[in-house]
Design goal:
- By secondary structure, this protein is an alpha/beta fold.
- The protein is 30% helix and 23% strand.
- The protein has 18 helices and 31 strands.
- The strands form seven sheets. Strands 1, 4, 5, 6, 7, 8, 9, 10 and 11 form a nine-stranded mixed β-sheet that branches.
- It is globular, with a radius of gyration of 23 Å.
- The protein starts with a helix and ends with a helix.
- The structure holds 3-[(carboxymethyl)sulfanyl]pyridine-2-carboxylic acid and manganese (II) ion.
Length: 582
């Protein structure tokens, strides 16, 4: 059942890392129970209250290891040019020479787990097989939630060798010996020195975005940092949307949106297909189809509450692994922004006594929950359809207090590619510590594109030409403020009102006003919001002076890509500059 290619690779790694034991994981429930018991015994997982948080555990990562580490993440393509200015680059031979001694003997005294997994619905043409070798039982248990792990991978692989080789070791957890290296030409990832999230669960950002983006470029598909949702209108018709948002822009909340009473009462429903990553391929009908490669959610805990994301709260009510949140004496977890008051006698994410006046946060700002997507009340019945779902629209959203309207429609695919390429978001304290700094993050892919971003824009343009009925592309901004800094838009479930207009436009309806940056709504369904036509005018205003400044900033930034930036992107920029000047 296990192909010779996989056996040979595991043997090679075993000889290098010298573990005491080797365990081939099968993904079964019995195996999950056994590994969980071992993790509890070794203090890797702390069991939570079996009644209040059934089947759930807390993990505390090393305090120096709490987030993705972009400066230690490398694309080891054959040439530096191929990796582009958006990536750290290391020559493949240098990377192997640097990391091989770190892996040598790294698993002595530990167990080497072989984790076969499928990204994407099993048996789907979208899907890809990976094998992660790791010495972290926490990684194994998270991979079981986040991927289709186990024998399904061997079945899909048959006797082939088309799998991503994902090698991970905790090493000594020192940031000085921490490297996350991607070898796109070898379909290989090497990660050492971190046990956290995207650095260690190699199916997620490393495979499903960095490696997959390069595979997609070569094979004619797209790996995108996008949610996928289904919006069902009162006639029962569903449209599927993809959306790219930089961090701290409410992407998970949008993926699990709860319609406000006024729209729910009229029959509007929202379905979740994916919260973070979309793989897109041209379908036989001339449309672009999408699948979620993941099987679970790895969501940010702080700020998640019954008010901001009721569906997420229901999802994580059981069978969850929490990382770096606070813990009460009653065996329940807590984080800043939770709707409940903190439980009594709490310890913080490092296990130190904590009380509300402590002056420090109980949960790390990047603390997480890992839960099966199947537990989400809004999960679409078709979320694992091997065919994927047909995409009507793509949204590019960011946090922009000024300049960018609530929602606007690009003229066509080329213009939409430009809208995505110019995506920029203002930082929040949670993200960086610095507030209000504008960060460019094209298609929200800057940390995740496995090759030169200018070439990636070129790939977008080529893909548009390959589909006869491409999705329409829209910009959205839930965060516009007035002169006093107050939000103009209520956000959360009310964002469905903007999606209603998006869908009308996809159906060839919906009144629009043409502006220099694209079409904005002439009217929106605002019933029950307390907002009027003047509020809509403020939300959709396009100020030429502000846009002239934006175009100048875009030009500076595009300049960093040199000659590789496609002419079509410069043409769109010239068109915008001309439209907003004078
Ligand atoms: O900090 C990490 O390792 C996780 S980053 C992450 C996790 C889930 C979804 N998205 C992201 C992200 O950075 O975009
Ligand atoms: Mn993400």
């Amino acid at each position: 059942m296990v192909p010779a290619s996989a056996r040979a690779w595991v043997e090679e790694v075993r000889a290098l890392c010298q573990p005491d034991h080797v365990v081939w994981c099968d993904g079964s429930e019995a195996e999950r129970e056994r590994l969980t018991a071992e993790a509890v015994r070794d203090g890797v997982l702390l069991p939570l209250d079996p009644v209040k948080q059934p089947g759930s555990y807390l993990h505390r990562s090393d305090p120096s290891d709490v987030a993705r580490t972009e400066h230690l993440t490398f694309i080891c393509s054959n040439t530096k040019d191929e990796a582009g200015p958006n990536n750290n680059w290391m020559a493949p031979a240098d990377a192997r020479a640097k990391l091989t001694p770190l892996f040598r003997g790294a698993m002595r005294g530990r167990t080497l787990y072989v984790v076969p997994f499928v990204m994407g619905p099993v048996g789907s043409p979208f899907s890809k097989v990976g094998i992660e070798i790791t010495d972290s039982v926490y990684v194994v248990l998270n991979m079981r939630i986040m991927t289709r792990m186990g024998n399904a991978a061997w079945t899909q692989l048959a006797d082939g060798d088309d799998f991503t080789r994902c090698l991970h070791s905790l090493g000594d957890l020192s940031p000085d010996r921490r490297f996350i290296c991607h070898f796109p030409q070898d379909n290989t990832i090497w990660s050492i020195g971190s046990g956290y999230g995207g650095n260690a669960l190699l199916g997620k950002k490393c495979l499903a975005l960095r490696i997959a983006s390069a595979l997609g470029r070569d094979q004619g598909w797209m790996a995108e940092h996008m949610l996928i949702l289904g919006v069902q209108n009162p006639r029962g018709e569903k449209h599927y949307l993809c959306g790219a948002f930089p961090s701290a822009c409410g992407k998970t909340n949008l993926a699990m949106l709860v319609p406000p009473p006024a729209l729910a009462g009229r029959g509007w429903k929202v379905w979740t297909v994916g919260d973070d990553i979309a793989w897109l391929r041209p379908g036989p009908d001339g449309r672009l189809w999408a699948a979620n490669p993941e099987a679970g959610f790895f969501g940010v805990a702080p700020g998640t509450s019954n008010k901001t994301n009721l569906n997420a709260m229901h999802t994580l009510a059981r069978n969850a692994i929490f990382t770096n949140v606070g813990l009460g004496a009653d065996g329940t977890v807590w984080w800043e922004g939770h709707h409940s008051p903190p439980p009594a006698d709490m310890v913080d994410w490092r296990g130190r006594p904590w009380s509300p006046g402590a002056g420090e946060k109980a949960a790390h700002p990047n603390s997480r929950f890992t839960v099966p997507a199947s537990q989400c009340p809004s999960i679409a019945p078709e979320w694992e359809d091997p065919a994927g779902v047909p995409i009507s629209a793509i949204l590019f959203g960011a946090r922009r207090p000024r300049t960018v309207p609530l929602v606007f429609e690009a003229r066509d695919w080329q213009h939409g590619t430009f809208v995505g390429a110019t995506l920029a978001s203002e930082t929040t304290a949670a993200a960086t510590g610095a507030v209000g700094v504008l960060r460019r993050d094209p298609m929200a892919m800057l940390p995740f594109c496995g090759y030169d971003m200018a070439d990636y824009f070129g790939h977008w343009l080529r893909m548009g030409a390959r589909v006869a009925r491409p999705p329409r592309i829209f910009g959205v901004n839930w965060f516009r403020t007035d002169a006093a800094g107050r939000f103009l838009w209520p956000g959360y479930g009310e964002n469905l009102r903007a999606l209603e207009w998006v869908i009308e436009r996809c159906e060839g309806r919906g009144d629009a006003v043409s502006t220099p940056i694209g079409n904005v709504p002439a009217s929106l369904d605002l019933e029950g919001t307390g907002l009027d036509a003047a509020a809509l005018a403020a939300l959709t205003a396009v100020d030429r002076e502000e846009w002239a400044k934006e175009a100048a900033a875009q030009a500076d930034w595009f300049g960093t890509f040199g000659d590789r930036l496609p002419e079509a992107v410069w043409a769109e920029h010239a068109r915008l500059s001309a439209a907003v000047s004078g």
